[in-house]
Amino acid sequence: MSTNDTTTEALAIAAAIGTPTILWGPPGSGKTSVVRALADLWALHLEVVVASIHDPTDFSGLPVVTDGGVSLAPPAWARRLADVGSGLLFLDELTTAPPAVQAALLRVVLERTVGDLTLPDEVRIVAAANPPEQAADGWDLAAPLANRFCHLTWTADAAGFARGLIGGWPAPHLPTLPPGWEVGLPAARGLLAAFISARPSLLLAVPEAGAAGLAWPSPRSWDQAARLWAAAGAAGASSETKASLVVGSVGEGPAIEFLTWTAECDLIDPEVLLADPSGYVLPARGDRALAVLSGVAAAVVADPTVERWQAAWEVVGGAASTHPDVAAVAARALATCRPDGAVAPPAAATLAPVLRTAGLLRKGTG
């Protein structure tokens, strides 16, 4: 699988779940072509907006005096996307947009708002940029804007170009994201929660000026990474694609630590554990135990049936003697999502002293 094949797969997954994505690559390397191909394959209305030739008001809205005051009129391209109800907004040459335009783009990318118009949820946002040193009058992306994208690398592929010249350029192969892919999201968030608990310094690292325009770790971008990790797993994406989505969200250094830690943990699927919690032995290492229990708790919070809630208590109760602090964290999450009709299992009573010690229960409560 070539680098660009991996990037195309990652781009398709990110676009499918509505994650704003930016392709980085040299001029003329085919970034626009792959975005057009993606729109064609998905039969999406495509709006190409070259950011460098627009004013801030083209994204924040043009003030118009009305009888009721002042409204912010959206541009024609935004109205067309709203009228269609879905589509792909392609923001080209983003690093040639001056800082004032980038600031106006923040609301478009984060809130999907253009003037007084909110774009439909079915509109995907993809951008493309040349590295500033390769762009005429280029600027680095502002750190707040950069943190809202998944950053993917596009290269000039000589072998693929040669094959295309001879036999034509085939349509890219896109992964299929199945309905209900979100079922894997609690496990991904539980995994991430355990990792950040073990590596708290990686939660937030605002970059210095020289690296501000690339991916960097923040609570926002880690949550984005969790969503992309779950979606890539549901789509059966390659390990290279999953890795590129994490790197593109939080940056290379934090992503490598996360990927290495995840590979070493070799954790059980929370849904498998909830289906049969008996006899499972929790990992001895604290961060791995936290990953298992966080995943179980997150899965039950997302779908709190009586059976799942009680099965989770069996898992958490088994950890009370060996990992009391970790068990207390999971128990607190379970206590907030008790389903109607559920009877507290013996494990909940067993953990009551642990919860009190941790300050999660008042004295006198059982």
Give an account of the 3D structure.
There is one protein chain. The chain has 366 residues and is an alpha/beta fold. Strand 3 and strand 4 (69-73) form a beta hairpin. Mean pLDDT is 86; it is low at 362-366. 42% of the residues are buried. A 5-stranded parallel sheet has the order 2-5-8-1-9, with helices on both faces. It starts with a helix and ends in a 9-residue tail after the last helix. Helix 13 runs parallel beside helix 15. Helices cover 49% and strands 11% of the residues. The protein has 2 domains: 3-260, Rossmann fold (3-Layer(aba) Sandwich), CATH 3.40.50.300; 266-357.
Quick structural gist:
The chain contains 16 helices and nine strands.
Q: Look at the structure and give the mean pLDDT.
A: 86
Radius of gyration: 24 Å
Number of helical stretches of at least 4 residues: 16
Shape label: globular
* Quaternary structure classification: single chain
User: In total, how many beta strands?
Assistant: 9
Low-confidence stretches: 362-366
- CATH fold label of the largest domain: Rossmann fold
* Class based on secondary structure composition and strand pairing: alpha/beta
Task: Describe the protein's topology.
Layout (H helix, E strand, L loop, with lengths): L2 H14 L4 E4 L6 H11 L4 E5 L6 H4 L1 E5 L2 E5 L2 H9 L2 E6 L6 H13 L1 E2 L2 E2 L4 E7 L13 H4 L3 E4 L4 H10 L17 H14 L20 H16 L4 H12 L1 H14 L4 H6 L10 H17 L3 H13 L5 H12 L10 H12 L9
Parallel strand pairs: 1-8, 1-9, 2-5, 5-8
Antiparallel strand pairs: 3-4, 6-7
